[in-house]
Design brief:
Largest sheet: 8 strands, mixed
Strand content: 15-25%
CATH superfamily of the largest domain: MutL, C-terminal domain, regulatory subdomain
Helix content: 25-40%
Strand order of the largest sheet: 5-4-3-6-2-1-7-8
Radius of gyration: 31 Å
Shape: elongated
CATH class of the largest domain: Alpha Beta
Number of helices: 21
CATH topology of the largest domain: Ribosomal Protein S8, Chain: A, domain 1
């Protein structure tokens, strides 16, 4: 095995660089964090060849005194902490004192800095290891050239120039989101790519994420003890194929934490379609002593002292935000105007249309909606429904008034913004689903006995499942018993589903119960089971509805949580504004 001996300092730094300096973007991240820790309000970044040839970061921060310049490249030397107590409550981005040393071990590094107390700047190059006078108006400029010039094997693992630049750009985007008060600029191969002036968070977020995100985003700001969660959460209509628009910051630091991502994913689970991913910009603030940021040299992983409590806090805040009924959207937008700078305000449909449920013209339909679609069909003519051709602002509820039904599938409604199209099955499915969840949470489901039991021919597996899962079936509101060797008698159903297709419903239910143990169905698969029940109980396509029924459906949508999406994450309604309709017909051109 050989003799045990200490490693050379250069090799130690190169080993550390393997964790800290993964690619040019890793270098840029460390340099940006140093600039922010130095109190910079303006940071300029210049890259060449994706950052492999050159990374130049200049700031207007406090600068480094000439006597401290050699220490800047020394391992485990830092001005940010000096004791274990300070480490456990660290508030700066950097604190390990090894980033610059690691970078200098695999690249040519030059630091030019002018401390506020000095009449001119000084320069240090890692190759010369000597401090010399230099010219610089203020702050610090760090140049990292020829990354991995002395470790060519590492250089082979780098991707194309365009890919490496994209990673650098993403690092700057994250920093810019976290610090909208700081101005940033980014150039690549002498071409200006970004110029971000200091601004309020809402403007910065628009510049970074784009305008398409905001019509679908809901603002949030909630606190519990020393925990605070603020930011923007996008509705499922803006879901993504990847995690490219998921930004989570803990005390201002961007992190990729499994606990936080799981809490967010769970909050969207009930409304997100298939393999789609949610989009959000979230800021979690807590006592620095409650989070350990010293988990990995890259500092993108953290560990919480009260992991379970934080998970539940984030999950419930996001779930409440995403579940806000349409009728409460206007109030949520009003609350957004009081959110501080780090929690943005967003466009919302309710704000744009200036509508609110509860206007005098809407009240008859709100009252009527509470009894409609609860299992009994409402005959046309039972109530008078308007069929307007023009609606004045403030005279209609959020989803307007129904005017027609299209091919037995879509409801067309008129509001002050323009035309609303509703998928009637998807919308009713969400309404029933939320009612089923609330009913089960309140206790045993309300049932409706059938005057004549429904006889269902089943196979042996279905017969066995019905016998074994009697307790679960009863809890869900079903009374099912054998009526023969291969027959089941359905004697009662959940009252909310009494008007649905009972045969399909019972077969689907028995199939789900056969595949999963009853205990798992009730505890972990409860919502999936209720979604199946709601799907079979919802009004089916090609069923003709009266205007009264259509208006009742619209009113219930406005009062139902998560009414924007069905149980499978598909949108339940879309809005076509008058301006969009005018463009279709080229009016005004």
């Amino acid at each position: 095995m050989g003799i045990i001996k200490p490693l050379p300092e250069l090799l130690i730094s190169q080993i550390a660089a393997g964790e800290v300096v993964e690619r040019p973007a890793s270098v840029l991240k460390e340099l940006l964090e140093n600039s922010l820790d130095a109190g910079a309000t303006r940071i300029d970044v210049q890259l060449e060849e994706g950052g492999v040839r050159l990374i130049r970061v200049g700031d207007n921060g406090g600068g480094i005194a000439p006597d401290d310049l050699p220490q800047a490249l020394a391992r485990h030397a830092t001005s940010k902490i000096a004791s274990l107590d300070e480490l456990e409550r660290v508030g700066s981005y950097g604190f390990r004192g090894e980033a610059l040393a690691s970078i200098a071990s695999v690249a040519r590094v030059a630091i030019t800095s002018r401390h506020a107390s000095q009449s001119h700047a000084y320069r240090l190059r890692n190759e010369a290891n000597a401090v010399e006078p230099a010219a610089l108006a203020t702050g610090t400029v760090i140049e990292v050239a020829d990354l991995y010039f002395n470790t060519p094997a590492r250089r082979k693992f780098l991707k194309t120039e365009a890919t490496e630049f994209a990673h650098c750009d993403e690092v700057l985007r994250r920093m810019a989101l976290a610090r909208p008060d700081v101005a940033f600029s980014l150039s690549h191969n002498n071409n200006q790519k970004r110029r971000l002036a200091s601004a309020e968070f809402s403007r910065r977020a628009r510049e970074i994420i784009g305008e398409d995100f905001f019509p679908h985003a809901r603002p949030l700001d909630a606190s519990a003890g020393d925990l605070r969660l603020s930011g923007l959460a996008a509705l499922p209509a803006y879901s993504r194929s990847g995690r490219d628009e998921q930004y989570f910051f803990v005390n201002g630091r961007f992190v990729r934490d499994k606990l936080l991502m799981h809490a967010a994913r769970q909050a969207w689970a009930d409304i997100l379609h298939g393999a789609r991913h949610p989009a959000y910009v979230l800021f979690l603030e807590l006592d620095p002593a409650g989070v350990d940021v010293n988990v990995h040299p890259a500092k993108t992983e953290v560990r919480f002292r009260d992991a379970r409590g934080i998970h539940q806090f984030i999950f419930h805040v996001l779930q409440r935000t995403l579940a806000t009924p349409l009728s409460a959207a206007s109030a949520a937008t009003d609350a957004a105007e009081t959110i501080p700078a780090n929690a943005p305000s967003a466009f919302s449909y309710a704000r744009q249309s200036s509508l609110a449920v509860g206007e005098p013209a809407a009240r008859p339909y709100l009252d009527f909606a509470r009894s409609a679609f609860d299992g009994a069909a409402v005959a046309a003519g039972d109530a008078v429904s308007p069929s307007p051709t023009f609606v004045q602002e403030g005279s209609a509820p959020l989803l307007g008034y129904a005017v027609a039904q299209l091919q037995g599938v879509y409801v067309l409604a008129l509001n002050t913004v323009g035309l609303v199209l509703v998928d009637m099955h998807a919308a009713h499915e969400r309404i029933l689903y939320e009612k089923l969840k609330n009913s089960l949470d309140a206790g045993p489901a309300a049932t409706q006995s059938l005057l004549v039991p429904l006889l269902l021919v089943v196979n042996e597996a279905e017969m066995a499942t019905a016998s074994e899962q009697q307790e679960t079936l009863t809890r869900l509101g079903f009374a099912i018993s054998p009526a023969g060797p291969r027959e089941l008698a359905v004697r009662s159903l959940p009252a909310l589903l009494a008007g649905g297709n009972a045969v399909e419903l019972v077969r689907s239910l028995l199939k789900d119960l056969a595949e999963h143990p009853a205990s798992r169905v009730i505890e972990t698969r409860r919502n999936e089971l209720l979604a199946t029940m709601a799907c079979h109980g919802a009004v089916r396509a090609n069923r003709l509805l009266s205007l009264t029924e259509m208006n009742a459906l619209l009113r219930q949508m406005e009062e139902t949580e998560r009414a924007d999406q069905c149980n499978h994450g598909r949108p339940t309604w879309v809005q076509l504004s008058m301006s969009e309709l005018d463009r279709l017909f080229m009016r005004g051109r």
